[in-house]
Specification:
Helix content: 55-70%
Structural class: mainly alpha
Number of helices: 20
Strand content: under 5%
Shape: globular
Number of strands: 0
Radius of gyration: 29 Å
Amino acid sequence: MSEKIDNATANEKSDTLWVRKKPTPETSIKTDRILAACEEPVELDALILLATSTEGLVNDELMESTGPILLGYDYKTAVESMLSRAWRSLPPHKDEDQVRLDVDRSFVYYPKNENDRQIDRRKAELSDVITEFLRSYPMLSYFQGFHDIVQVFLLVLGVDGAAIAAAHLSLQRIRDFMLPSLSASVAQLQLLPAILQAVDNELCKHLSQTRPFFALAATLTMYAHEIQEYGDIARLFDFLLAHGAVVSLYFFAVIVLSRRDELLEIPASEPEMLHSVLSKLPKPLDLETLISKTTSIFNQFPPERLPRRAWTKVSPYSVLKTTREITHQPSLSESVKLFEKQVTQLRKEQNRERLMKQIRQYRRPARNIGIAVFIGVFSFWLRRTGWDGYPIFWLRRIWQTTQLHRMNTRV
């Protein structure tokens, strides 16, 4: 922790340290188990269970050891690679202006008891971490709220650790959110109704007129934009990093399910009211209960078994599928290739939608043109054959027959 506040005085250090919960004999035992799981050969399955169980990874120091393992990289190797890059000399990223605006709004809720000078230093560090990452991977698009995620890493892992973790998390876990458009992010939300239907069909029907956009802000930022207590967001990060990206959607579904009675009291005919309620997380969150229920529902209704064939509609390049098993995570270079494939797929879908829109737009004019051409050809034929005096007679007969048929049908 000292490297995170190396410019502070001894008194400032004691004031600025933050802890999740006071240690207990139980957490001491769990700490030993976590450290043992991190030793070579790493026991990843055991580490996942420990991160999921009550109190997660216990404290930030343990997260420094376990974070790289859960994100699938070797810390020392990653630091050496990072130090070899002179990122400040790289061309500016197109989104750096937005980064500056967001960084100015960071560190609002935590850490507490820090003075303006310390907060300003953290903001400078946060700006450097995000800018370094974006310049290193210029094809990625920054999204508002990304700074909320990185600031948690900065507090937990320090500057160097946060820069490395941000790169791996972005490319491996939240890559869908950094595409040129939000279409893949919105597509992820379509799993929510399927999860709700599998667990509680009545509630799902009640919310059927409310599109799942209410979950976008929370899932986009891994809940860092919504949760204001540092201990809570650090605990939730333990859980989310120990599982594939799709678990974040299950967690939101469980939050919705926990509000069942409240939501059923709101008429289904008022989707705006339902959206307003669902877009705000309840306070306080009973994280341990929510995490336990999320794990249970995920095991009972895994993505492959969701109704509506929802899982089959997810892109094979989406992080939802490429992190389905975190024991086999793609490397950074593999993740970049997956990103490129996803961009190509996205552009094809956009071109297809644009073409279909044009077809729908010109379908009626094309039909009218076809009828006009037919009438023109028919008129020319009538004049050539000498039947040009008869069309009005035959059209009148056809009209009369049609009207008679309609009358008989009504009777």
